Amino acid sequence: MSDVLPAWTAITDWLAVHAPASHATLRPGAAVAEVRSAEDELGLTLPADLATLLMVCDGTVDASALDRDPDEYDPGLFLAQHHLLPLEEIAHVRGRGGKTDPFWGSWVPFAVTDYSLPPWGGLAVDAGGRLATFHLAGGEPPAEPLTSPGYGSLSEFLAALAEALTQGTGPLAAAVVPGLHRGRAGVGPFAG
Fold it and tell me: How far apart are the C-alpha atoms of 142 and 150, rounded to whole Å?
């Protein structure tokens, strides 16, 4: 059984109380029909955990479009220094209508490090539910995303993030510290 929903609920409940600016970046969930339409457009079935997550939260808003000081920490980066992409942006990054970059294969990018730049780095999940990081170094993508250490699936990653935020423990807490700055949450070296 997937742990996506309990982990996501723990994350968003924590954000609502401790990081309202980050919580405000959450978009409403996509409808089942929207997910199915995106799958048709992408030419693949989204991994179950990712589809579940997108139906409760269709990504985060691009906080660069919000009225905020550009020197302030981006409130949408609460996902371990990544933005959760909406369905439309997943299709944009991966490619659509038979024009998918062969780099992606069965991988679906679902989070990026910066909305304002091309997707130089982020998180992806494959048809089998395995989680990976990707880096588009030098403008040329590697042969495939690099597998992430510590958590092999999206549900494990979200559970680790929930544990780091709510308890200050777990695999993410060991490497980085959850922190707050002016109502924005992040998991990264800025925290303290």
Answer: 21
Tokens 């490497």 appear where?
175
Q: How far apart, in whole angstroms, are the C-alpha atoms of residue 54 and residue 46? A: 10
Contact 184, 172 (CB under 8 A): no
Q: What is the pLDDT of residues 13-72, one digit of tens each?
A: 999 998 888 898 899 999 999 999 999 888 889 999 999 999 999 999 875 555 545 545
Within 24-133, residue ranges assigned H as helices are: 32-42, 48-56, 87-94
- In degrees, rounded to 5, the angle at the alpha carbon of residue 18 between the alpha carbons of residues 8 and 50 is 15
- Cβ(162)–Cβ(149) under 8 Å? no
In sequence order, the 6+-apart residues with CB closer than 8 A to the CB of 55 are 29, 30, 31, 32, 35
Q: Are the beta carbons of 165 and 188 closer than 8 angstroms?
A: no
Structure tokens at 97: 């209508």
